[in-house]
Design brief:
The chain is an alpha/beta fold. The chain is about 30% helix and about 25% strand. The chain has three domains: about 60 residues, Roll (Archaeosine Trna-guanine Transglycosylase, Chain: A, domain 4); about 120 residues, Transcription Regulator spoIIAA, CATH 3.30.750.80; about 190 residues, Rossmann fold (3-Layer(aba) Sandwich), CATH 3.40.50.
């Protein structure tokens, strides 16, 4: 195993078990490693401190272990078994009314660069680092060993998540099985999963608990679901007794999936309509008096340089919704941008409320669910922020 040596004093974050080694902390190598290779990290005093995947870029090593141990199939089996135990303990795995959950959430499960979502009999695996891509086959073998007969398919979906400069020529495809069955269950509701071409792993699993909360507020209300993607919030609102539900997304493909998902759960239900339209234009021109609005946009900022413009975007979007929502209305509003902190987001929404000149109360402060755990040594893993607002 090749060795990486840190500059003097740069081991402090690793001593606090932070799982990243930045390029600026590295002094030298004993031999130049290949991208994706497992390397050992040593202090300036030549003391072992961590083992991880090497990658060219700002984050140069993603730590897999703070012990000297081989990174092999047995290692991945142990980590995956621990992750599964966590999901069983919180009640999302082995649940007859819910066969959809996140099994591995990167650093939150001590497997940085790896995401695995479970949709019934299919596991969708996604690599966000070259190292996890290199190890994909042994990870798939380990996953099959740990999950046993509960999964029959493993779909690898990393075309858009790996660094393009690595020139890996990656294509999405099945590592195990090949089923075309794409219907999964979340809290008793069915939905189609587009793991072939859909965003993320095919469905936004991280909003499961927030969708269930929305269901509680939907009874008798006129609901507008902006950036609906595959319509998750929409069919929860319908089960909650909404008077009508309108779903909006700029993508016609997303609208088609939303309509298919609504039909799967509520066939021939005339309460639902879907619109392929830009969100800001729809809000500007809308005439329906909605009293429950969901704003769940894609990430407005993927890096710190975009933070200022992102916050302006969140303020503008929320201001439009707050200006239009009926008195006594409920607004569910979210940010999934990792670089936007809870305080950043709350300030952006506060600014929107002031500019809209509406009296607003915070009813709930929302976050990612327990199957998207945050490593206590890696606070950057907290990415999903949400507020539920009562608007006078």
């Amino acid at each position: 195993m090749k060795k990486i040596y840190l500059k003097r004093g740069k081991e402090e974050s690793l001593q606090r078990f932070h799982p990243w080694v930045f390029s600026g902390a590295i002094s030298h190598f004993d031999q130049e490693p290949e991208e994706g290779e497992v390397v050992a990290v040593y202090t300036n005093n030549q003391e072992f401190i961590a083992t991880g995947h090497y990658q060219i870029g700002s984050i140069m090593v993603r730590v897999l272990s703070f012990q000297q141990e081989p990174i092999n199939q047995a290692f991945y089996e142990k980590r995956l078994a621990t992750a599964l135990d966590v999901r069983r303990s919180i009640g999302v795995a082995d649940n007859p009314t819910n066969n959809t959950y996140r099994l591995v959430h990167g650093e939150g499960d001590n497997l940085p660069g790896l995401v695995i979502d479970i949709y019934g009999k299919t596991a969708v695996m996604q690599a966000h680092s070259v190292g996890m891509h290199v190890d994909r086959t042994i990870i798939a073998e380990a996953l099959k060993q740990v999950m046993g007969n509960t999964i029959e398919n493993i779909f690898y979906k990393s075309e858009t998540t790996l660094p393009f400069k690595a020139d890996l020529g990656q294509e999405n495809g099945f590592l195990l099985g090949g089923s075309t069955e794409d219907i999964a269950i979340e809290n008793g509701l069915k939905f189609h999963v587009d793991w072939l071409k859909g965003q993320k792993t095919g469905f936004f699993v991280d909003q499961r608990e927030n969708r269930r909360l929305l269901e509680h507020y939907a009874n008798g209300r006129k609901v507008l679901n902006m950036f609906c993607y595959t319509g998750g919030f929409s069919f929860y609102a319908m089960r909650g007794g909404a008077q009508l539900v309108h779903s909006v997304d700029s993508s016609q493909k997303a609208i088609d999936l939303t309509e298919a998902n609504v039909a799967l759960n509520f066939p021939n239900d005339t309460r639902h309509k879907a619109f392929a339209e830009d969100a800001f234009k729809f809000l500007d021109n809308m005439t329906t008096p909605y009293d429950l609005i969901i704003l769940d946009p894609p990430a407005f900022a993927k890096h710190k340089d975009a933070l200022r413009n992102a916050l302006k975007g969140y303020s503008r979007l929320n201001q439009k919704a707050l200006e239009k929502i009926q008195p006594g209305g409920i607004l569910f509003t979210f940010s999934c941008s990792q670089v936007v902190t809870k305080d950043n987001f709350r300030t952006a929404v506060f600014t929107a409320a002031a500019q809209a000149r509406r009296n607003v109360r915070i009813l709930h402060q929302l976050h990612q669910p327990a199957d998207h755990p945050i490593n206590i040594f890696h606070p950057e893993g907290e990415y999903l922020k949400g507020l539920v607002l009562y608007v006078e």
